[in-house]
Amino acid sequence: MKETVSMFTRDGVRLDADVYRPDAEGSFPVLLMRQPYGRSIASTVVYAHPTWYAQQGYIVVIQDVRGRGTSEGEFKLFAHEIADGFDTVNWASQLPGSNGKVGMYGFSYQGMTQLYAAVEKPPALKTICPAMIGYDLYHDWAYEGGAFCLQANLSWAIQIAAETARLKNDEQAFQILYAASRNLPLFDTIPAYPEIIQKYAPDSFYHEWIEHDRPNEYWEKLSPKTYLKNIDLPILHVGGWFDTFLRGTVNLYKEMASRSHFLQYLLIGPWAHLPWGRKVGSIDYGLAAANPIDELQIRWFDRFLKGIDTGITNEPSISLFEMGSNHWKCFQHWPNNSKTSYFLQSNGLASMREDAGKLTPPPTPTRNGEGGTIAEISSVSDTFIHDPWRPVPALGGHAAFPAGAFERSAIDCRTDVLTYTTAPLTEDLLIVGDVFVEIYCRADKPSFDLSAVLSEVRSNGNVYNFTQGYVRVQPNQSTQPVKIELQPTCIKITAGNQLRLSLSAACFPAYPVNSGTGSKNKETRLIEAEIMTISVQSGGNFPSRICW
């Protein structure tokens, strides 16, 4: 049974919600989702319909946030979610039939509204289940390694602006924005700041996000991280290996697990931002990868809202999907040893031949302790040209659309991509947890970018990416080596296959092409982009490496 009801915030703004009730007598806990996309959708792109949750014995409330759907007020990204979230939780706890206990669920923006709602500690809020969120909005959402997440930010800004135009019944603006969402305007005079955003989305968050291109007070005021230091709740954290916000999910989990008195449960599947299914990109991860979240959330809410012993508190608190074996693996603590390294070696032709660049483990000492060191290997430079006229394209991963794993051997054959590959593995190789690369490099321009992609090279020659990272090296940033943090991952590469690292100076349009000048994205014109020469050094005194 569904009904539409309204509440008023502390400043008198009406917020509308759909309420779904169990077909039974009695009092029930409330499950709340607050979202900006029209409450009828109810995030059914990844979750079961609210009627299913109601059938499990919950009152389900799906609310339009301020200025969205039919709710009154002005929508401003994340600006009102702390106060409105607090007011909504208190209101929902007092609905007819409520037992006074509230839990929240939802992903992306709907995950963020949970974090903001918890800030003022509404007494009725007993647990939350945020999926795919930004804990630090600068590092986890808007920028990665100092590079603007162009494709994700621009497409979302256009989507939000189109919905604003629809609510205003501005058909011309809506049609223009809708068309742009299907063919992103990436080649304007200023590529990262297209005219359509300036003209048809004057109130968009995009203007502030591209202006504030360094961590500063703006991001501190906006980020949940600033406000959650004294918050403690049982939290179910959900992420995906190919989700663009995985960094936020993992960072929030680590923070809470380090200090919480309550259970913190983390589950990461082999999924992109949406949907959460068995096939992502070109890879079918099998039935085990099918979305388990609805049933898991009911077990979670039954425990923390109904007091039912579902056994979840007796299980390992981390569940990670291991790609390759395609099974779930359980851990009691986040696997973060950083003890395994593979080092780059080359004959200087890593951009020309796939067998020229190699990844090698540290030399194994002999019985008498001898065996050589990395420093004894001659240092070599691999030099390549980055041409902004033909930047290395994004293919899958977490920051591009569509996301996931794709066959990328054609990209690895480009001469502006350096590849370093192990010999065929003699035993299975497990990579799990945090992954980073350290690269000794230099360029002939004040600023340059580095994209790092890890892939599995199969015995038939096909190459499938499984994690990657990106960094923008700014002028006067002379620290060596350059560290690139890749997405956390969990994969088993089977014996006979190979591990590969691919390095390039672009991943477009996931990130803007670096002009080389060091100017702000908001001011960088397409005509300013220059050809640059980049050299990657390995061996000897330059132990460039992968580490996990």
Tell me what the structure shows:
InterPro entries: AB_hydrolase_fold, CocE/Ser_esterase, Galactose-bd-like_sf, Xaa-Pro-like_dom, Xaa-Pro_dipept_C, Xaa-Pro_dipeptidyl-ppase/CocE. Pfam families: Peptidase_S15 (PF02129), PepX_C (PF08530). GO terms for molecular function: dipeptidyl-peptidase activity. The protein has 548 residues and is an alpha+beta fold. The chain folds into three domains: 2-135 and 227-331, Rossmann fold (3-Layer(aba) Sandwich), CATH 3.40.50.1820; 143-220, Orthogonal Bundle (alpha-amino acid ester hydrolase ( Helical cap domain)); 341-547, Galactose-binding domain-like (Jelly Rolls, Sandwich). The protein has helices spanning 50-55, 81-93, 109-118, 137-142, 150-167, 171-182, 195-200, 206-211, 217-222, 246-259, 293-305, 409-412; strands spanning 2-8, 14-20, 28-35, 59-64, 98-107, 125-131, 143-144, 147-148, 235-240, 264-269, 279-280, 283-284, 318-322, 327-331, 341-346, 357-360, 380-386, 418-421, 429-443, 448-457, 463-473, 482-493, 498-504, 532-538, 545-547.
